């Protein structure tokens, strides 16, 4: 049996006080991590050595696999999307809504691990065409329940979108219906992630008990404090909200109020992330890959979070240890699946090293760099 020797240091996990537990070295045996030198590692025969800083595999907590600019894509395209994320180090994807059936990936050891939210649940004519399950408020509970059964412990609801009758962003759901839908998802063992751009929606998300806010550009100090107190997690997707000026320009001729709103949200988006950090909100790294956004941008999002004011350690936690724990995945513990990156330098010093891993190891096998 072949053994992988990780000569370290190994940034294994966060301890209960939030400090990184650093191990000198580790081994991979049968796809799993061990900190006890295997007896078969005594000789150099059959032992492959990977030298460098070891970090648990990155998380993209807001990705869409199987979704392209024109809706669902074929299997070969979905595979390329997942491989692109994987080779960039994102070994655990929370799929934040996709109309494509990507279950086949679960049986393919070369694919990153995917936690699905089923299809987006959206208000009729209030989302990208052909992507979501579109319903009116009376059918929200039923639609959310169906997607909770179809997913992997998550449901995705589109919480606000442009209302063409008023020409501005507006919440999509009455708070009573949203609350009932969240209760229904929770009763089925699923957590709820909600797409939100607007300030106006956040009090409803709080009242309804939504677990995770996606984008959350409407955040300020007050809503951030309330989110922190309620244990809400936030996925800022800065690489995507950078495009708000494009959305504004496209909407401006017909919807000038919406365009002005999007410009204002764009101007405040880094401050919104700082408000979240200052309030102690749990942040998740997510790129919004799919539709218009390319896959493979996980290191860009980590860098963007540092650019917005997170420390490298905070951004790394959002990309790895912290998000893995939040999503129920292990870090590098004895016996844990060997999903990890080997880096040329300490990422706590400079997150830019995430862009060029020496190796990406998935299920104990080096899958990248390729070629
Ligand atoms: Zn998305």
TrEMBL record:
Judging by the UniProt lineage, the source's domain of life is: Bacteria
Instruction: Fetch the Gene3D superfamilies from UniProt.
Output: Metal-dependent hydrolases, Urease, subunit C, domain 1
Q: Which InterPro entries match?
A: Amidohydro-rel (IPR006680), Metal-dep_hydrolase_composite (IPR011059), Metal_Hydrolase (IPR032466), Metallo-dep_Hydrolase (IPR051781)
- Show the Pfam families listed in the entry: Amidohydro_1 (PF01979)
Q: Where is the Amidohydrolase-related domain?
A: 53-366
Keyword terms: Hydrolase
Write one Gene Ontology MF term: hydrolase activity, acting on carbon-nitrogen (but not peptide) bonds
Tell me what this protein is called.
Imidazolonepropionase-like amidohydrolase
According to its UniProt entry, this protein's organism is Quadrisphaera granulorum
Organism classification, top ranks?
Bacteria, Bacillati, Actinomycetota, Actinomycetes, Kineosporiales
